[in-house]
Amino acid sequence: MKIKNICCIGAGYVGGPTMAVIAQKCPEINVTVVDINEKRIEAWNDKDVENIPVYEPGLSKVIAETRDRNLFFSTDIDSAIDKADMVFISVNTPTKTYGIGKGMAADLKYIELCARQIARVSKSDKIVVEKSTLPVRTAEALKNILDNTGNGVNYQILSNPEFLAEGTAVEDLLNPDRVLIGGDVESPQGKEAMQALVDVYAHWVDKSRILTTSVWSSELSKLTANAFLAQRVSSINAMSELCEKTGADVNEVAKAVGMDSRIGPKFLKASVGFGGSCFQKDILNLVYIAKSFGLNEVADYWEQVIIINDHQKRRFAANVVKTLFNTVSGKKIAFLGWAFKKDTNDTRESAAIYVADYLLNEQAEIVIYDPKVKAEQIYADLDYLNSRPCEENRRCVTVANNSYTAGKDAHAILVLTEWDEFKTLNWEKIYNDMLKPAFLFDGRRLLERKIKEKIGFEFYAIGS
Ligand SMILES: NC(=O)C1=CN([C@@H]2O[C@H](COP(=O)(O)OP(=O)(O)OC[C@H]3O[C@@H](n4cnc5c(N)ncnc54)[C@H](O)[C@@H]3O)[C@@H](O)[C@H]2O)C=CC1
Ligand SMILES: O=C(O)[C@H]1O[C@H](OP(=O)(O)OP(=O)(O)OC[C@H]2O[C@@H](n3ccc(=O)[nH]c3=O)[C@H](O)[C@@H]2O)[C@H](O)[C@@H](O)[C@@H]1O
User: Which ligand is nearest to the CA of 108?
Assistant: First the structure.
C-alpha cells in the first residue's frame, strides 16, 4: 500500500518539523498539517520563512523548499482528514490540571477530540498514527472511539513516537538513532499498515534503524526513553551538589564516569535543572501509570527524578539569595537566557521560570535577555504560575534586548540557558557596568571560572 496523502493534526514543535522533513524526503506524498490555532497556521504560512512559529536550526530552509510544493498548513481539518490515507495525531498531551490524576496523569482530551473528528469525517479507510507521547494502551481507547463512532470504515492504529530533541530537531529527524513503529503485529491488515509507514521513513532512514514492535511496547518505550534521559540529568545534578560540598568538580566527574563505555558520555551535563515540555510531564505520567497498577515502589523510584530536579532549581535560586548577603530585595538581577535549552524559542517548564519566581518572592528586580524568546512569552510564563498579580510581574521584571543592557547596574548575573553567544560576550565591559561586588552564577557550566575570576567576578557555578 502506497501512501499518497498524509494529514497531521497539530502544527506544533513536533508536527511542524516532522512533517516538513517527511515532505522534503517524500516529494510524491502530499502532506497537510492542520491545527485549530489560526495564528499558528498563519505563522507557518508567513511569506517570510524566518517568521515560522518554531525556531529550529535548519527548519526554515526545509520549509522554504517544501511549502506549497507538497507541504501545506491549514485550518481546514475536516478536508485534510477526508483526503488522507494516513492521519498523524501530534497534538499536545499536557499533565492534567483537574479531576482524577490532577498534576500527574496525561490529559488526553485533545487526543480524544481528534479521534472523534477523524471518526466523524472519514469516508474511507485510514491509518491513524499516534505521534504524540501517550500513556501505554491509549491506542485501545482510540480504536474504541473510531470503531464505535465512525462511519463503518476500517482503521489501523499505529504508534510512532517522536524522539527528536528541540534545538536539534531537523538533524534528529534526518538522522534518527531509530524510528519506532508499533502496530497490530498479529493481523495482515496491521502488518500492511506498519509496512506503509516503514516505507515512508525508508525514503531516508536505513531499514536497520526502523524498529517494529507491538503497539504497547512502542507506547511504553517512549515514556521509558524520556524517563531514562531525565534520570541521567537528575543523577549528575545530584552529584553536582555533592561536588560543591566536597571540592570535586562535576565536569571532571562526568568525564571520568562517561568514559566508561557502559555509561557513555552523553547527557551528563550538570545544570540548573532540566526543563522542556516533556520530561516532567512524561515521568509524572509514568509514575501515575505505575501507581494505578499498585506498583508503588516503581512509582517512587521514578518520582525521585522529579524531586531532585525541583530541588536543583530551588537550591540554585537559594544560593543566589544566600550569596548576595541573604537578601535580593530591590536588587537588580540579570538573567541571561529564558528558553529551556539553547537553539529553541520554547520556554515550557524552563528552569529559568522557577528561578525567577523564587527570586521575585524575595522581592528581586529581574531583567531578562534571551536571543529567541519574546517579552510577551516571558510574562505569560510568569503569569501562568499564578504566584502574584500579573501587574506585579510586569513591574518587577523587564526584558532587555541584549546581554549588555541586561547586565548594566546589576548586582548579579545568572546564566540560565547555554546560548553560544553568552560565551563570547565582552565580559570585561559587563563587569565594569555592574555594581560591585559583581556576582556571576553559571547555571549551565558555560563559562571559564579562571577567566571570569581574573576579570573580578565573584563566580559560582553548578557543581564546582
Ligand atoms: N516538543 C517536543 O520536543 C516533543 C514533543 N513530543 C510529544 O508530541 C506531542 C506534541 O508536542 P508539541 O508539538 O511540543 O506540542 P505543541 O503544543 O507545540 O503543539 C500541539 C498543537 O496541537 C494543536 N491541537 C490541539 N488539539 C487540537 C485539535 N483537536 N485539532 C487540531 N489541532 C489541535 C494545538 O493547537 C497545538 O498547536 C506531545 O504529546 C509531546 O509529548 C514528542 C517528542 C518531542
Ligand atoms: O519527548 C520529548 O519531548 C523529547 O524530550 C527530550 O528532548 P528536549 O526536551 O527537546 O531536549 P533535551 O536535549 O532532552 O533537554 C531537556 C532538558 O534537559 C537539560 N539537559 C539535557 C542534557 C544534559 O546533559 N543536561 C541537561 O541539563 C536541557 O538543558 C533541557 O532543559 C528528549 O531528548 C527527546 O528525545 C524527546 O523526544
Answer: 1
165 appears as a binding residue in the annotation: yes
Q: Binding site annotation covers 11?
A: yes
Nearest CA to ligand 1 atom 25: 91
- The DSSP output letter for 280 is H
In a domain, 388, yes or no: yes
Question: Helices marked H in 187-295 — which ranges?
Answer: 188-201, 215-246, 250-258, 279-292
Last residue of a domain, one of 172, 205, 238: 205
d(CA 421, CA 415): 11
Contacts of 197 (CB under 8 A, 6+ apart): 3, 86, 127, 129, 158, 160, 181, 183
Please give the DSSP secondary-structure letter assigned to residue 204.
T
| Residue 236: predicted pLDDT | 98
Distance between alpha carbon 81 and the CA centroid of its chain, in Å? Answer: 27
Low-confidence ranges of the chain (pLDDT < 70): none
Q: Which residues pair with 179 in a beta bridge?
A: 210
- Residue 10 included in any domain: yes
What pLDDT shows up at residue 150? 78
Residue 422 domain boundaries: 307-461
Check residue 330 and give its pLDDT: 98
In DSSP notation, 311-350 reads: HHHHHHHHHHHHHTTT--TT-EEEEE--SSSTT----TT-
Where does a domain end: 184, 205, 226?
A: 205
* pLDDT of the residue at 47: 96
Beta strands in 51-115 (DSSP E): 71-74, 86-89
- Please identify which residue in the block is written with the cell numbers 550569596: 323
- For residue 409, CA distances in Å to 402, 413, 429, 438, 439 come to 14, 10, 12, 9, 12
Tens digit of each residue's pLDDT (9 = 90 or more) over 449-461: 999 999 999 999 9
Q: Any idea what the CATH number is for the domain that residue 418 is in?
A: 3.40.50.720
Residue 385 in any domain: the answer is yes
CA distances (Å), origin 282, targets 135, 169, 198:
9, 19, 26
Q: Out of 8, 243, 278, 396, which one is annotated catalytic? A: 278
pLDDT of residue 270: 98
Q: Catalytic annotation on 278?
A: yes
Cα distance from N-terminal residue to C-terminal residue, the chain: 57
Check if 444 has its Cβ closer than 6 Å to any atom of ligand 2: no
pLDDT digit string (tens) for 343-375? 999 999 999 999 999 999 999 999 999 999 999
Ligand 2 pocket, 249 CB below 6 A?
Answer: no
Beta bridge partners of 413: 334, 440
Residue whose CA is closest, atom 6 of ligand 2? Answer: 165
